[in-house]
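ok so for the tutorial part 2 we go from a plain amino acid sequence to predicted structure tokens. step 1 is just haveing the sequence, like this:
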Amino acid sequence: MSTAFADPSILVVEPSAMQAKVVCKAFRELGMEKLRTVETAKAALDCMRDVRPEVVVSALYLPDMTGLNLVLAMREETDLAGIPFILVSSETRPQALDPVRQAGICGILPKPFSNAQLRRVLDTTLDFLAIEHATSFDFRAEELKVLLVDDSGSARRFMRRMLENLGIRNFIEAANGRAAVDLLASTMVDLVVTDYNMPEMDGQALVQHIRQNSWQQDVPILMVTSESDSSRLAAVQAAGVSGICDKPFEASVVSDLLGRLLADRD
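step 2 — the prediction. this is what the tokens look like for a chain of 266 residues:
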């Protein structure tokens, strides 16, 4: 856990007064004392614009909009776009949770959650907040050129912020695999970070194209995805992806993967 953000300011968005107390109590048990609570998404946005929190923790279902709508609204405002977002929900359906993952969040906590689950999500979030993340990289991160591929602009911004925290500064972006193919035809990159589910050309087809048809066939490819179908993931691995991590991803996991993928490219 980053010591720089040992006690971040946290905004809890929860319409149930009882549930808000439960959430705040859990944070206090881990030493978090800078807590504010609101009941609606509008109140949350107003509160954030007034005093910017370091972390937002929200329920999925709110009186005026969903947690997904809230995080998307945050990502559209420059001053709020970089605030880490944690979802607390008893929802388990992929069709409800996957869009939230795609929006760029730091973690999902179940209802109810344990202290261990909360600590894990907090560790991920505080890593995200850290300006610098300790790595064992054998290369100069600031010299890398990274291609980010995701049809969600919010997800690309989240990935970019996470990678910037690891010292990477040079990015180009594509909204789907087809656009990525066009960019790779004329632009040399050191790393491709891609989603799986995208229109036009999905992540698996992109990996196959790079490995079979691109002049950059040996470029490392990291897939960041909420896909859970084991057969689909196995097909992606067979296509030649260099590494796969879950969405939302953890800074420590990405750091370790990048260190392994890029250590020999210095």
